[in-house]
Design a protein that fits this description.
With 316 residues, this protein is α/β, with parallel strands linked by helices. It is built from 10 helices and 14 strands. Strands 6-7-8-3-9-10 form a 6-stranded mixed β-sheet, with helices on both faces.
Length: 316
């Protein structure tokens, strides 16, 4: 049974924009649910309605059976939140900022201090614990996570928590996100990073233009693409998209990177074509591998008229 439930939630702004359009979604205790979608898909608007920062046009939000649209204060008490925007900590060291959040949420002083130190150490940022100097973007992001996780509520909402975080500490952060769920919290992870979602969520909902366009476990969502491979080409500096053979799907692209879905029966032809393309200098490198969650995403999230398909950022 879901601890947090969005039921037919709709938010239409005065200019007619439907930021959320009939979203129904649940997050269970002990689960990490990834809310995945491009920028502007309506993910942050959904979270803002949970905390009463934006009022829904229609629909319901329940947390442990309580209607939090009617009682937004309950959600603020029951949830921990890492916002997308940076958290102001001017004049405080990271340790002081994390401890302050834990104390505000009612934690005993000694317990909160130990938990704060343990979190900073687990993310390998303890060297900054007692420094009030300006932090790099990645370290500041990790401190913001610690402020949400030091005394977690029944629901923990993380809005793009890995932005600016280096690959090593990103993996450490995933482990801490999983630990929150293992301890019984319902974790809602808002992201536009497909590979991140594939690695660290139990279940996933893809949102595009205010609607859920795909939902399930990563394995379930990839099952429909078992008959395909993905051919990825990296173009050389200044290179252009090479002429594509007839069997190739229209590629998704961003910068120098192209993704092409290849039916299994065309795997041999795809490898030969990519090898020849690289030999002619039209591709710097290529790979041919099983379809991934990124391919599911590209099928589900459709560009508008005249728009380019944008690939999500890769992660280390």
């Amino acid at each position: 049974m879901a601890l947090l439930e969005f039921e037919d939630l709709t938010k239409v702004y005065p200019n007619g924009t439907a930021a959320n359009d009939g979203i129904t979604l649940g997050v269970a205790a002990g689960e990490v649910l990834g809310l995945l979608g491009p920028n502007g898909a309506g993910k942050t608007t959904l979270v803002s309605q949970l905390f009463g920062l934006v009022r829904p046009t229609s629909g319901r939000i329940r947390l442990a059976g309580v209607d939090v649209v009617a009682d937004p204060g309950f959600a603020r008490r029951a949830c921990s939140y890492q916002p997308q925007a940076g958290v102001a900590t001017a004049g405080l060291t990271p340790l002081q900022a994390v401890e302050l959040c834990g104390r505000i949420r009612g934690g005993p002083k000694a317990e909160v201090r130990q938990r704060a130190r343990d979190l900073l150490a687990s993310l390998q940022i303890e060297d900054w614990a007692d420094k009030a100097t300006p932090l790099s973007g990645g370290v500041a992001r990790l401190v913001s996570f610690c402020m949400a996780a030091v005394r977690p509520g029944r629901v923990v909402v993380l809005d793009e928590p890995t932005n600016d975080v280096d690959p090593l500490r990103r993996r450490l952060l995933w482990a801490q996100i999983g630990a929150l769920a293992d301890a019984g919290a319902a974790v809602l992870l808002v992201t536009h990073n497909v590979l991140e979602a594939d690695r660290c969520v139990d279940r996933l909902a893809i949102v595009d233009r205010g609607r859920i366009v795909g939902e399930g476990t990563p394995a379930e969502m990839k099952a429909d693409l078992t008959g395909y491979l993905r051919l990825e080409l990296v173009l050389p500096p200044g290179g252009t998209v090479p002429p594509l053979p007839g069997w190739a799907s229209k590629p998704a692209s961003t910068g120098k990177r192209l993704l092409i879905q290849v039916p299994l029966g065309d795997a041999g032809r795809a490898a030969e074509w990519a090898t020849a393309t690289q030999a002619r200098g039209e591709a710097a490198e290529f790979s041919l591998q099983p379809a991934s969650l990124e391919d599911v995403y590209l099928r589900a999230v459709r560009p508008g008229e005249g728009e380019e398909v944008a690939l999500p950022a890769a992660i280390g």
